[in-house]
């Protein structure tokens, strides 16, 4: 059996070379993974893997080994993906754990900024949030985030969804753009009213001013008056203020009763919103993550690999761990056509081991992941 032993010795020599080359390849794979992580690129690149296989096929001299070579390359690439994913996962878990362990306490007598003017629904949310705060107002949603970014306030108040018209997409997009955290939420009951100057009647109105949400929430009423022009405005209360200042009988505003009365207008028609139970959910955002034992809601933003089944596998974590997903919203990433990031709310608390595990699993499976809040859910306010 001397010949057999000699052949085995040759295989051992070749295996030694293969292992040396494999180690060299895996070091390069690690560097590729690092570059991908730094540039927000997912592990799997199907076109690249197809090119590797085709190149390998072309290099095979003895075609009897062609299929075996392809199988070997597929196995090596699967090992490489697993290695990159493992490295990615460790880095992501370390980063997420660091964030979850950096919780701070709520501010006493905070400085709060809201969008709009006094009488706005955002102002109502502010009053619900804190009765002992100083506050300032800004013109638009981005200004709220800029004020936080520049240290001009401790918290910002922003509307994020309405029970009648759904998501307020601009806020979702800004939450992804700015590094802020949701620290609370408030539900405000919304009653839209049509206000004009004191002598105005409905037949005098030629233009109605309001925030686009005011128009959407009152679309059934407005459909009766097709000749009236709808003029979008930054905020419902700002619209009321402008109508009052211009004192023009042909102009009206859709706003709250409080805003209309505050600016000395006449209520032409109250309760014009489509749904009686019309609520807007406002989020309170801050620069730091806050969480205590009363918090029961977690929010995350993530981008998933653009492959079949990735969203299904992500959502399975909630059912498998007994956590209730409260909301999912998709928005375009803005980087590539028809690719999206997901905003997800679910029940949980950062001190709970199951919640932390789910957050870590979500982070590992995502191309991009951010924990953006742990706070007390306010939906029990609706009776």
TrEMBL record:
Pathway(s) served: Amino-acid biosynthesis; L-phenylalanine biosynthesis; phenylpyruvate from prephenate: step 1/1; Metabolic intermediate biosynthesis; prephenate biosynthesis; prephenate from chorismate: step 1/1
Subcellular location: Cytoplasm
Listed InterPro entries: ACT-like_dom_sf, ACT_dom, Chor_mutase/pphenate_deHydtase, Chorismate_II_sf, CM_dom_sf, CM_II_prokaryot, Preph_deHydtase, Preph_deHydtase_CS
Sequence ranges assigned to domain Prephenate dehydratase in this UniProt record: 111-287
SUPFAM superfamilies on file: ACT-like, Chorismate mutase II, Periplasmic binding protein-like II
Residues flagged as site, Essential for prephenate dehydratase activity: 280
Positions of the ACT domain: 299-376
Keywords from the UniProt entry: Amino-acid biosynthesis, Aromatic amino acid biosynthesis, Cytoplasm, Isomerase, Lyase, Multifunctional enzyme, Phenylalanine biosynthesis
Swiss-Prot/TrEMBL catalytic activity: chorismate = prephenate; prephenate + H(+) = 3-phenylpyruvate + CO2 + H2O
GO biological process: chorismate metabolic process; L-phenylalanine biosynthetic process
UniProt entry tagged with the keyword Transmembrane: no
Enzyme category, top tier: lyase
Residue stretches making up the Chorismate mutase domain: 1-88
EC numbers: 4.2.1.51
Primary subcellular site in the record, as a coarse category: cytoplasm
ATP-binding found in the keyword field: no
Function, in words: Catalyzes the Claisen rearrangement of chorismate to prephenate and the decarboxylation/dehydration of prephenate to phenylpyruvate.
Protein name according to UniProt: Bifunctional chorismate mutase/prephenate dehydratase
């Amino acid at each position: 059996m001397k010949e057999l032993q000699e052949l085995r010795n040759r295989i051992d020599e070749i295996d030694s070379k293969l292992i040396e080359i494999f180690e060299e390849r895996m070091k390069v794979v690690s560097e590729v993974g690092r570059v991908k992580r730094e540039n927000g690129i997912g592990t799997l690149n199907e076109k690249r893997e197809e090119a590797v296989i085709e190149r390998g096929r072309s290099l095979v001299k003895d075609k009897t080994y062609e299929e075996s070579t392809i199988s070997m390359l597929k196995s090596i690439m699967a090992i490489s993906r697993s290695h990159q994913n493992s490295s990615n996962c460790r880095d992501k878990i370390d980063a997420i754990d660091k964030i979850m362990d950096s919780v701070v306490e709520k501010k006493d007598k905070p400085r709060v900024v809201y969008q709009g003017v006094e009488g706005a629904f955002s102002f109502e949310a502010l009053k619900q949030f804190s009765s002992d705060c100083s506050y300032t107002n800004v013109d638009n949603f981005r200004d709220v985030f800029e004020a936080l970014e520049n240290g001009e306030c401790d918290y910002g108040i922003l509307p994020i969804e309405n029970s009648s018209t759904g998501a307020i997409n601009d806020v979702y997009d800004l939450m992804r753009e700015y590094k802020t955290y949701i620290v609370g939420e408030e539900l405000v009951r919304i009653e839209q009213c049509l206000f004009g100057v004191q002598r105005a009647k409905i037949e005098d109105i030629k233009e109605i001013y309001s925030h686009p949400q005011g128009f959407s929430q009152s679309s059934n009423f407005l459909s009766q008056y097709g000749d009236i022009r709808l003029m979008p405005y930054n905020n419902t209360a700002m619209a009321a203020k402008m109508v009052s200042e211009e004192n023009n009988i042909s102009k009206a505003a859709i706003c709250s009763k409080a805003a209309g009365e505050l600016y000395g207008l006449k209520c032409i028609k109250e309760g014009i919103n489509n749904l009686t139970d019309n609520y807007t959910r406002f989020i309170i955002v801050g620069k730091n993550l806050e969480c205590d034992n009363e918090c029961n809601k977690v929010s995350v933003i993530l981008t998933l690999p653009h492959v079949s089944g990735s969203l299904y596998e992500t959502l399975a974590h909630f059912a498998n761990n007994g956590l209730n997903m409260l909301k999912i919203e998709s928005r375009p990433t803005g980087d590539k056509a028809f690719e999206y990031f997901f905003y997800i709310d679910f029940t949980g608390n950062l001190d709970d081991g199951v919640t932390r595990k789910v957050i870590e699993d979500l982070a590992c499976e995502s191309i991009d992941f951010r924990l953006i809040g742990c706070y007390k859910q306010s939906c029990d306010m609706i009776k």
